[in-house]
Amino acid sequence: MNVKSLFLLGLVLVAGQAFAAPAERWYSDEQVAQGEKLFRQNCAGCHGQNAEATPDWKKTDANGNYPPPPLNGSAHTWHHDLDLLRRTIREGGAKLGGQMPAFEGVLNAEQVDAVIAFFQSKWSDEIYQRWSGRFVSDDLPSLNDIVVANKNPLTRLLRQRIGNAPIDDVSETSVADVWQVQIGNQYVYLLDNGKYALMGDLVDLESGRNLTEISRRVTVVETISEFNDKDLIIYPAQGEARATLNVFTDTSCPYCQKMHGEISQLQAAGITVRYLPYARGGQNGPGYETMKSVWCADDRNQAMTDAKSNRFDDLPQGDCAQAAMIDRGYRAGNQVGIRGTPALIKSNGEKIEGYVPYRELIPMLLQ
């Protein structure tokens, strides 16, 4: 082969690398969403909300220690295989010369993988491809292997039937040999060591308590409690606060607009209203961009009133950091089974679907 042929072959190889299809990632969108929540609860304080770390992470502090590095692919994280990433999260960073605490006992195996999935989702295709190329492909688990390995054996047969849908931890019920497991916002009951699955509500006929509804409400309360007041748009009660109402809302929803016109009556009755965004249709929904603008406004309460009155001229661009709340609120709404707006949620997690006139709603909240 002559020099010219070698040169042309080199061009072909380089072009082939340049236009190679991105490596298929091992994790799912559900794992990324779960990992985002866990990362921001446990890791963001040191590594940044989006795994970007601090701008001066390459400089040592007064004690000669380096700050926590970014995990978004801009540092050396992609030099480590999956097992080392997992082990570092579980055991902490002392063995690698760092000061990161151990999360053994804080995060289970599934949650550790979800955290890794989240910060790897920040990696460019180029970085991810370089990472996956450093290790033999057999060393990287398939998504199914990861999911199955992290699940209670009780869910083994259930997993085979539902594929890669996210399954929460199994919990024992008050009924002997009956276990409850959550799939998305649905509850399933496993019988005979996981051989049978029963879908529906579990009711204690002696007490009349709907045990499934109690679990639903706990999930709703936990999900909403992950939001700080600064994340929401709040209309505080006037005088003594007697009740709190959380509302998943959309600026383009006619009944949301109608309810917003009655906020003052709710406030006067001692009810604090807390708005969470829920763009019907997600990023393609009619209120998505408007709500980003509302959450970016200096006076979000006034911006919400303007948007729900179809006055858009004074709304700012929806390009601030707080605009991420629109996607976050949408995911939270889906997690707790919101089907439409307005979705009203009492402080105990009880859901009230749809618009209710204030004269009827106030007694429901104060009883």
Task: Explain the layout of strands and helices.
Blueprint: H1 3-18, H2 29-42, H3 44-47, H4 82-91, H5 109-120, H6 125-134, H7 143-149, H8 156-162, E1 171-172, E2 179-183, E3 186-191, E4 196-199, E5 203-204, E6 209-210, H9 211-225, E7 233-235, E8 243-249, H10 254-260, H11 263-268, E9 271-277, H12 288-296, H13 300-308, H14 324-335, E10 343-346, E11 351-353, H15 358-366
Helix pairs in contact: 2-5, 4-5, 12-13
Describe this structure in words.
The chain is α+β, with helices and mostly antiparallel strands and 367 residues long. It has three domains: 29-146, Cytochrome c-like domain (Cytochrome Bc1 Complex, Chain D, domain 2); 151-223, Nuclear Transport Factor 2, Chain: A (Roll), CATH 3.10.450.70; 228-366, Glutaredoxin (3-Layer(aba) Sandwich), CATH 3.40.30.10. Helices cover 40% and strands 12% of the residues. The chain contains 15 helices and eleven strands. Strands 7-9-8-10-11 form a five-stranded mixed sheet, with helices on both faces. Strands 1-2-3-4 form a four-stranded antiparallel sheet, with no helix packed on it. Strands 5-6 form a two-stranded antiparallel sheet. A hairpin with a 4-residue loop joins strand 10 (343-346) and strand 11. The longest helix has 16 residues, at 3-18. The chain is globular and about 65 Å long. The model is unreliable at 1-20 (pLDDT under 50).
